């Protein structure tokens, strides 16, 4: 084969091909030089790889969506040329019409240009690499059942530790504060409970390093305790258990440890991995030990942050003050925040007018793990929103507006979470192999019975994970936990009020309630079956041998074949054999008899076959199969 003939096959002129061959170090003199078939195939492959590399490196940045006119400018082409290409593809656009990102990328690729979306100013700032990493204070959240002493422990730490030091302190409205200990500083989040904790996580605010679960030594583990533990587990953060009110006569820490063992939190002194400490918020017993354990865990985690870069933080709480306007308590995650900085906080922006620490004193700057109250925002952000320092006022306004636009679109498009009916589709797309369930029942005995029935569903391929189980009505906490863990909520003989249903609808969470146990089990069993990888049954249909190969302008590479066995059907699965090796698997895209398209060709008849592979050669064999997907059932 001559070089000019090979160039024609590749759709380029001879000079371009010779230049490419020189880059690839192929010894070619001119366009009349000859190469054998094997070398020609190698050249085609190497030139194709070279073209791909050139396209990947030829990057043009654009903003999506993009109009035909703007795309033409970026590609250095006339809009009319692009419109003509689109018409040939059966797509009809106007010059000022927005086109999909995939369509824009495809046409750019045909011009050997790789389109890349421009980074927003927000993304550019977030992309700044954190350097100069130094130690930071751990961030601790206390969680547990109501009246088990979370606030009392925080109050004791505040009064005994903060009063001893010059720095620190707390106001009851800050929601976060920092104490200075002999071995280092510790930041505490004083949140109302696990619902707030999970709501912040739902916004991507994973700011807690360690969770301390507080349990009354007298009352033991309660439903809200279990909820708090499940929320902490979902956050995948270390858990320390503080067994509080140890000073009471009826205190029974061993009973608490036994209950913890039943919910997979086996204490260290019982041979497990869960750190427990007995404390009394009244007498102070064990508080120093608790703080030492927090510092020890933090040291093992080697928590570090950049204290120099522009600040990134999270809103802990926010409010509107009559005299001072919008106030937000923020916790710095990285960098340094200064008075006078321009920042974006959720969908709002500010030039920071003033900052106050947790003692109410004015400060000029705050670094990582430090909580401060800022003023100057043009609105009240939600807890969990991100705060980001930006270079100037223009950037702040632009990012805030984009966030508002994103929020508007989010409201119009509900979040898509797991649905029982969609599991088969989801496993095909995402290879999902877990079914996560939040289970609620009317009484403890029924809850155990339902859980036992679900755990008996047989499957080695799909793991049934009960993220949380509890007695009582399905509540907003269950929906929030389902939101961050992508679970379904299943209730048995329980009430689901309208507010919870409304929240579930807003979050896109499936909540189902049942009165008959076998209906509940059947639905979950069907969901697990949907996750099983289906069986694929293939039936041999026919075989064709390639006699010759030729190229058509519209159809591309066509193999002239003789059907040796069975029949060849258009659209069926095809294996291309060379010797005993399968070198390609695809579908029969085109099937022709002379110039006519046909649906099938029987044994002993010649035909033209296209399988979308240009490496096909004379002597190759094409085997054709019918493929049947069989859904699997649990036995």
Could you outline the blueprint of secondary structure elements for this entry?
Blueprint lengths: L2 H8 L3 H10 L13 H21 L1 E4 L3 E2 H8 L3 H10 L9 E2 L1 H10 L3 E4 L3 H6 L6 E3 L3 E6 L5 H13 L13 E6 L2 E6 L4 H9 L7 E7 L6 H13 L3 E6 L8 H10 L12 E4 L8 H15 L2 E3 L5 E10 L3 E10 L1 E3 L3 E4 L2 E9 L5 E2 L1 E3 L3 E7 L8 E5 L2 H20 L10 H8 L3 E8 L2 H12 L7 E9 L4 H10 L2 E5 L5 H10 L3 E4 L2 H15 L3 E18 L3 E14 L3 E6 L2 E7 L2 E4 L2 E2 L2 E3 L3 E5 L10 E10 L5
Parallel strand pairs: 1-4, 6-8, 6-9, 9-10, 10-11, 22-23, 22-24, 24-25
Antiparallel strand pairs: 2-3, 5-12, 7-8, 13-14, 13-21, 14-20, 15-19, 16-17, 16-21, 17-18, 17-20, 26-27, 26-34, 27-32, 27-33, 28-29, 28-34, 30-31, 30-33
Helix pairs in contact: 1-2, 4-5, 9-10, 9-16, 14-18, 16-17
Uncertain stretches: 162-173
Instruction: Give the N-terminus to C-terminus distance in angstroms.
Output: 61 Å
Q: Give the helix tally.
A: 18
What's the number of domains? 6
Rg value: 33 Å
Query: CATH homologous superfamily name of the largest domain?
Result: P-loop containing nucleotide triphosphate hydrolases
Name of the CATH first level of the largest domain: Alpha Beta
Indicate the CATH topology of the largest domain: Rossmann fold
* Beta-strand content: 25-35%
Residue-averaged pLDDT: 81
Helix coverage percent of residues? 25-40%
Oligomeric form: single chain
Largest sheet: 9 strands, antiparallel
Shape verdict:
extended
């Amino acid at each position: 084969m001559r070089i000019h003939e090979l160039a024609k096959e590749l759709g380029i002129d001879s000079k371009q091909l010779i230049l490419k061959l020189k880059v690839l170090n192929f010894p070619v003199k001119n366009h009349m030089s000859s190469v054998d078939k094997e070398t020609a195939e190698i050249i085609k492959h190497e030139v194709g790889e070279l073209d791909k590399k050139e396209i990947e490196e030829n990057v043009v940045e654009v903003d999506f969506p993009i109009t035909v006119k703007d795309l033409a400018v970026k590609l250095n082409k006339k809009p009319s040329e692009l419109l003509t290409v689109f018409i040939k593809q059966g797509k009809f656009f106007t010059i000022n019409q927005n086109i999909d990102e995939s369509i824009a990328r495809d046409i750019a690729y045909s011009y050997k240009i790789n389109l890349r979306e421009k980074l927003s100013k927000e993304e550019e700032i977030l992309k700044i690499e954190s350097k100069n990493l130094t130690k930071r204070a751990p961030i601790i959240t206390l969680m547990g059942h109501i009246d088990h002493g979370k606030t009392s422990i925080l109050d004791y730490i505040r009064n005994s530790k903060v009063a001893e030091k010059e720095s620190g302190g707390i106001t009851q409205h800050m929601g976060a504060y920092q104490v200075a200990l002999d071995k280092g500083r510790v930041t505490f989040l004083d949140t109302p409970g696990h619902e707030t904790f999970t709501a912040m996580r739902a916004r991507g605010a994973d700011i807690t390093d360690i969770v301390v679960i507080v349990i009354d030594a007298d009352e033991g583990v309660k439903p809200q305790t279990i909820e708090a533990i499940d929320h902490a587990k979902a956050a995948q953060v270390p858990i320390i258990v503080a067994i509080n009110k140890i000073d009471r006569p009826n205190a029974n820490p061993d009973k608490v440890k036994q209950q913890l063992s039943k919910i997979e939190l086996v204490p260290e002194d019982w041979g497990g991995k869960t750190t427990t400490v007995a404390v009394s918020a009244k007498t102070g017993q064990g508080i120093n030990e608790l703080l030492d354990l927090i510092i020890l865990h933090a040291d093992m985690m080697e928590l570090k942050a950049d204290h120099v870069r522009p600040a990134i933080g999270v809103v802990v709480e926010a409010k509107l003050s009559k005299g001072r306007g919008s106030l937000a308590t923020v916790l710095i995650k990285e960098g340094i925040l200064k008075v006078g900085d321009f920042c974006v906080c959720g969908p709002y922006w500010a030039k920071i007018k003033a900052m106050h620490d947790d003692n109410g004193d004015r400060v000029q700057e705050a670094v990582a793990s430090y909580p401060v109250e800022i003023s100057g925002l043009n609105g009240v952000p939600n807890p969990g929103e991100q705060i980001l320092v930006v270079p100037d006022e223009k950037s702040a306004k632009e990012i805030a507006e984009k966030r508002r636009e994103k929020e508007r679109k989010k409201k119009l498009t509900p979040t898509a979470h797991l649905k029982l009916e969609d599991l088969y589709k989801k496993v095909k797309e995402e290879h999902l192999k877990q079914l996560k369930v939040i289970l609620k029942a009317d009484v403890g005995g029924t809850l155990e019975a339902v859980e036992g029935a679900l755990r008996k569903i047989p499957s080695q391929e799909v793991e049934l994970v009960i993220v949380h189980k509890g007695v009582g009505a399905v509540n907003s906490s269950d929906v929030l936990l389902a939101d961050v863990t992508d679970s379904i909520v299943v209730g048995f003989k329980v009430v689901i009020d309208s507010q919870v249903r409304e929240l579930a609808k807003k979050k896109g969470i499936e909540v189902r309630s049942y009165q008959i146990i076998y209906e509940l089990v059947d639905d979950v069993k069907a969901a697990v079956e949907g996750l099983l990888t289906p069986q694929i049954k293939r039936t041999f249909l026919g075989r064709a041998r390639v006699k010759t190969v030729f190229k058509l302008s519209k159809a591309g590479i066509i193999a002239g074949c003789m059907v040796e066995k069975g029949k060849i059907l258009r659209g069926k699965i095809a294996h291309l054999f060379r010797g005993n090796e399968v070198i390609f698997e695809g579908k029969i895209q085109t099937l022709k008899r002379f110039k006519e398209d046909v649906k099938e060709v029987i044994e002993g008849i010649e035909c033209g076959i296209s399988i979308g592979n240009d490496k096909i050669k004379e002597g190759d064999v094409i085997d054709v199969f019918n493929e049947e997907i069989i859904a699997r059932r649990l036995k």
